[in-house]
Amino acid sequence: MAIQIHSSAGVPAARDWRLAIANGLRGRCPRCGKGRLFSAFLKPVDSCAACGEPLHHQRADDLPPYVVITIVGHVIVGGLLLAEKYADWPMGLHMAIWPALTVILSLALMQPVKGGVIGLQWAVRMHGFGGEPPSPERQPLPRQSPPPSVHQS
Description:
This protein has 153 residues and is mostly helical. The protein has helices at residues 17-25, 63-86, 91-123.
């Protein structure tokens, strides 16, 4: 017996993920690109002031810091290796430049990266951006062990 699934809803219109991420990187609404995405440094608005798109669904969580750490790590380690190979800097200069550059780059990249992640979530309809409320993941019930048999002699 085959299982058939019928749906009366049409396929939702495709969203351009490149444009949504680009708008997010600029700190703008992923849908219209006009409204502001953040009300504070990393606090997204509940809805876009320009188009009214609800944005409270976003769940960027830990992805933006991971992306920022990867980018900053590559820049700092690459720069440090190049400086060691081609320049003869004193240790004090290294101690002044690399930690300061690490902090500056991390702070400068965190908001755009979080905006890009929110834009990606909106484009692929994650976490309620598709119009339906998010449903919890279903996991199978644990296997029931058979009751112990009672043998009376």
